[in-house]
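Methods: example folding runs. The two proteins below were folded one after another, and each record is reproduced exactly as written to the output file, sequence line first and structure-token line second.
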Amino acid sequence: MQQTVYSPKRVSVAVGLCIVMLAALPRYMVGGHETRQTLLLMALVLVAGAAAFQWRMLSQEARQALPALIKRLAIMLVLGALVMGLGTPCLLIGLAGRSLSLTRRRVVCCCMRFPCGGLRGSNDFCTFKPL
């Protein structure tokens, strides 16, 4: 039994990969990493071209299955963004709180968001107070 090479799952995975590469692009633009940015753009064009080619090669039945897979991909991307957006700060604050609690004197940013310990920028932007 030979499996078909072109499937809607492969197209949706390629679309997801393109979205992830687009999401990583601003980091390279802000950081001034032009070489890596160029490589990422070339990979993005290659993957997008392969996804478009695979989409064209899909049968009509497989093309009808693709919107459900893209919807599932969008839901998973939103859930992943929520987990990363909400989970990472909680994890970092929890870990920083434990490491600072050993010193007996915790220093927390005045905005109560960063357990910075006096390491966050100038006092004009953020004043510190001991707890």
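Second run, written to the same file directly after the first:
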Amino acid sequence: MSSGEPSQSRNHASEELTSADGAGALEEILQATNAADRSLSPSEHAAVEAIAQKYLGQEFCCQPILVELVDAFLKARLRQEMSAECWQAMCQEVADVMFQTPETQDRLRSFWQRLCETVS
């Protein structure tokens, strides 16, 4: 029987994500994927390009690609302190929600395709 630790981390991550900063950052991620990279800062652009180079030629997926993209966006936009475990749980949860939403997944696939074309 499970001790419940992962779900407690995910619950804590959910609480962190419901903050005004978290909700704003999530909306910015969605806008950035639809804006053909115009809303990315130079550091964000470098981070997502590094992810694209790392996974170049691979089909877009939630784990590890989207989780790493979410991590890169949130690190640049959130200044909250939390444990690495809670941070990873939050990134995974955000990625899961985005990946499971058909409209968002389509936008993210297009973003990934454009990103891979840029680095190839």
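Comment on the second run: The mean pLDDT is 78.
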